[in-house]
Amino acid sequence: MSRSSELFEAAQKHLIGGACAGGRFNPLLGQPLYVARGQGSRFWDIDGKEYIDLFTGSGATFLGHNHPAINEAIRQALDVGIIVNGETEYHSRFAEMIADAVPCAEKIRLQNSGTEATMGAIRIARAYTGKPKILKFEGHFHGMHDYAWFNCSTPLGGLRDDGTVAPIADSDGMPELMSELIVVVPFNDIEPFARAVRAHRDDLAAVIMEPVSYNQGCIPADAEYLREVRRICSDSGVVLIFDEVLSGFRMCRGGAQEYLGVTPDMCTLAKALGGGVPISAICGRTDIMSVLNPVGHTVISGTYTGHLVSVMAAIACQTEIAQPGFYDHIDALADRLYTGITDLLSTTGIPGIVQGIGARFGLYLGVTEPVTNYREATKCDREMEIAFLLGCVKRGLYLHDYGHLTPMHHGFSAQHTTEDIDEALGVIEDVFRDIRA
Ligand SMILES: Cc1ncc(COP(=O)(O)O)c(C=O)c1O
Asked: Does 132 lie in the same domain as 32?
C-alpha cells in the first residue's frame, strides 16, 4: 500500500472524506493529493513522485513554491511577534501597494479568503444602495457564502421569458429564501442582462462578475459587452463589482480591469495577492467603501483580518510582481504554453481549443469554436478531458479537477521556466497521442 493510501485511510477516521476541504478530494485520484514539499515550479507527493505543478494551489501560489522573498517576509513577521487583531505600519504600506496597482482601489479592507471578500463586498453594496438583490452570471463563482453561490457548477437552469436563468443553489443547506435575492443571467449576452437590470433596478444593489471567468477555464468578458455592462450599471444606480480573486495580478498588476480597460466600482482580490498566504481584499470607490465601520455602520471585521504574517508575505509578493520584466516572463511562458498546446491539438488531431490569459488557461476538448459562456463550456467532452488530465498526472504533470460539468482553470507560476513548459508540452503531446490511439 502506498504511503498516500495509508494516510487517506487514517485521515478518514476523523476528517469527512479524508480531507479538510471538499475541493481537495481529487476525483481523478479517488483521494486527496498528499504533498510532501514544493520547490519553485514543482512539488513532490508523499510517495516521492515529482510533478511539474500546473495547479499552483488553485492559482494562489503565483510566485511558485518556497519563494525566498515570501519565506523571508514570514520570518520577519514572526520576529515582530504573532500580532493578532492589531494594526502595524505594514498594513497601510500594503494598502498603498494595492491602490497603486488596481484602478478601482481607492479604499481597501482586508479579509482572509476570497469567500469573505465577496461576501463583504456584497454587504457593502447593499448598505450603500439600500437595495437587497444581487445579479450574477451563470457559471461564475464567488465563494461559498449563501449570497451568490448559485448556478456555478450546477446543471443548466431553465431560461425564462424575461431573459434570466432559474437560480439553482450550488450547495444543500442554503435557505430557499436566498434565491429570491439573486438574479442569474447568461454571460457575454447584453440583451438579457439589460432586460434583467431594467426589471430589477429598484431592488438591485450590485452586479458581480468574474471579468475573466477562470472558473470555467478561461472565459473573458467581451470588451464591448463589458463597457455596456459598465454603462448600464452607472445609469441604473447599481454597484458593479469585479470578483478578481483569480484574475487579479494574473496578467498585469491592475488585473482584468486594467487588461480589459473597464473600471468597476468595487473589486475583490485574493490568491495572487499574497502568493499563497491566506489574505484577500475588498477594494472600491471612497464613497462606497465609506459605509464601513468605524466611519459608517456596515461591519466587516475579524480576529484574523489582516494577520501580520499574511500582510508581510503579501507585501513581499507584491514587491516581486512590481519588478520590471515580471510580466514579460509571464507573457513569454503563456505564449509558449498556449501556442504549444494549440499546435499539439492540431498535429495530433485532437479536437479542442485552449483559451489563456496571463498565467492561467482553460483547455476545452471536443469543441473547436471559442467558448464564451457556461452553456457553451458544458458542451465540452469531459470524458476525453478526464482521460487527458489523468494521463498527465500519471506522467508527472499535475493538473487538478473538481469533477464539475465544465473544465476548470490551470496555470503556472512566476518560477516556472521555459524548460518546465517544454517538458509539460512533451507530456501533453504523449497524452494526446495516447488518446488519439
Ligand atoms: C473568482 C473567485 N471568487 C471567490 C473565490 C473564493 O475564494 P476562497 O476559496 O479563497 O474562499 C474563488 C476561489 O476559487 C474564486 O475563484
From this structure: no
User: Rounded to whole angstroms, how far apart are CA atoms 426 and 335?
Assistant: 16
Q: Could you read off the pLDDT of 338-365 as tens digits, one per residue?
A: 999 999 999 999 999 999 999 999 999 9
Report CA(142)–ligand 1 centroid distance (Å): 6
* Segments of 86-238 assigned E as strands: 107-111, 133-137, 182-185, 204-209, 212-213, 219-220
Q: Do 175 and 245 fall into the same domain?
A: yes
Neighbours of 270 (CB within 10 A): 26
Of 414, 259, 412, the residue nearest 323 (C-alpha): 414
Same domain, 104 and 210: yes
Tell me, using a 6 A CB cutoff, whether residue 58 lines ligand 1: yes
Domain that holds residue 422: 3-66+324-436
Whether the CA torsion 116, 117, 119, 123 is positive or negative: it is: positive
Backbone phi and psi for residue 215, each to the nearest 5 degrees, phi listed first: -70, -10
CA 119 / ligand 1 centre spacing (Å): 11
Grid cell locating 329: 516572463
Is 0.70 topped by the overall pTM? Answer: yes
Q: Which residues pair with 350 in a beta bridge?
A: none
Domain count, the chain: 2
Contact assessment for residue 52 and residue 392, using Cβ atoms and an 8 Å cutoff: no
Pairing of the two strands 204-209 and 133-137:
parallel
Same domain, 353 and 371: yes
Q: In this structure, what DSSP letter does residue 135 have?
A: E
Confirm if 37 and 44 have CB atoms less than 8 A apart. yes
**101: which residues sit within 8 A by CB, 6+ positions away?**
249, 253, 254, 318, 321, 322
Listed residues 321, 344, 370: the one ending a domain: 321
Mutational test site, ligand 1, from 214, 246, 305, 409, max ligand atoms within 8 Å of CB: 246
Q: Find cell 468595487 and name the residue.
A: 266
Q: Is 210 in the pocket of ligand 1 (CB under 6 A)?
A: yes
Dihedral angle sign, alpha carbons of residues 76, 79, 83, 88: negative
Ligand 1, atom nearest to 118 Cα: 4
**Overall size of the chain counted in residues:** 437
* Cβ-contact 281, 110 below 8 angstroms: yes
Amino acid sitting at position 428: I
- In this structure, are 20 and 90 located in the same domain? no
**Cβ neighbours of residue 295 closer than 8 Å, sequence gap 6 or more:** none
CATH at residue 212: 3.40.640.10
- pLDDT tens-digit readout, 143-191: 999 999 999 999 999 999 888 999 999 999 999 999 999 999 999 999 9
